[in-house]
Design a protein that fits this description.
- With 303 residues, the protein is an alpha/beta fold.
- The chain is built from 10 helices and 13 strands.
- A 7-stranded parallel beta sheet has the order 3-2-1-4-5-7-11, with helices on both faces. The protein has a two-stranded parallel ribbon with strand order 6-13.
- Helix 1 crosses helix 5 and helix 7 crosses helix 8.
- The two termini are 27 Å apart.
Length: 303
């Protein structure tokens, strides 16, 4: 393991990824403080309100942190994208990130490393193009949201922090998230591709995502955007076939693109039918080793 920090601040601990990060930090004996909206009484929790100034009532509790990981953000896949919910998606990412970087700037001893969530949605719908961290950003609501999100994170450099934007692909975990929502249909033999199925899908198994976050925390040569995706993206058709094999069921019921658009509106084109073929160049060049580099081994392990 690389040179891990001793004391870390985490926001978004109640989410799927955050809960796994908490366990991984504890397993590595890393002292963790959590920024929370609603405290549960657990030790190390600090109540914050991103809209307040300052966001926490006692900023001195945050002095001397080695690193911070910011994972907060409204779920993009559980609500229809009305105009009001789109504003919530943006604000829950951009405004909270601005609040946390302003908080860092007020500290005498701010974190030396700042990891902020982002997504490979920043690349937009790019067909078969192979995408690395050096690729240009794309168009669309998700791309624009991620671009503003990453710009807000970059302001952490004003406090002297190394800033990493964690561009997550689809994080696969059986207990929650996209995979859990798909499993009931696939286990009934009613799964199938989305639209043509030719769109590329970047993904990462949860264990690799968590190990990659720890790697980035300790690998001080890394800076800027990092694609948190497995080295072998797949088309939606191939993912569908692999998931069907993993649950020992056929996957013969495609969902037409027009039906997706009728059912969920703008989200269909931006999140489900868009083609994103991103690869983890930064991680691979830095020596990170994936435990589950291909979709078949990942699904067998997760399920």
């Amino acid at each position: 393991m690389t040179d891990l920090p001793a004391k870390v601040l985490l926001s978004g601990a109640s989410g799927l990824i955050g809960a796994n990060v908490i366990r991984a930090l504890a397993a590595n004996r890393i002292q963790t403080l959590q920024l929370v909206r609603k405290p549960t009484g657990e030790p190390g929790q600090i109540v914050w309100d991103p809209k307040a100034s300052p966001p926490v009532t006692d900023p001195h509790r945050l002095e001397g942190l080695d690193a911070a990981i910011h994972l907060s953000g409204a779920n993009i896949s559980t609500h229809r994208w009305t105009e009001s919910y789109k504003r919530e998606i943006v604000a829950s990412r951009v405004e909270t990130t601005r609040a946390i970087t302003r908080l860092f700037a007020s500290l005498k001893s701010p974190p030396k490393t700042f990891l902020c969530a982002s997504a490979t949605g920043i690349y937009g719908d790019r067909g078969d193009e192979l995408l690395t961290e050096g690729s240009a950003h794309g168009r669309g609501f998700l791309a624009g949201t991620c671009l503003a999100w990453e710009a807000a994170a970059d302001s952490g450099r004003d406090a002297g922090a190394r800033v990493i934007q964690l561009r997550f692909g689809v994080v696969l975990a059986a207990e929650a998230g996209a995979l859990k929502r798909m499993l009931p249909l696939f286990r009934l033999g009613m799964g199938g591709r989305l639209g043509s199925g030719r769109q590329w899908m970047d993904w990462i198994a949860m264990p690799d995502a968590i190990q990659a976050i720890l790697f980035v925390l300790g690998e001080r040569t890394l800076d800027g955007p990092v694609n948190l995706v497995a080295p072998h993206p797949v088309t939606n058709r191939d993912f569908t076939l692999a998931l069907g094999r993993a649950v020992h069921r056929p996957a013969l019921f495609p969902v037409p693109a027009f039906a997706l658009r009728l059912a969920i509106g703008e989200m269909a084109d931006d999140a489900l039918l868009a083609s994103v073929r991103a690869v983890p160049k930064q991680l691979s060049d830095s020596g990170f080793e994936f435990r589950y580099p291909d979709i078949g081994s990942a699904l067998r392990a997760l399920l």
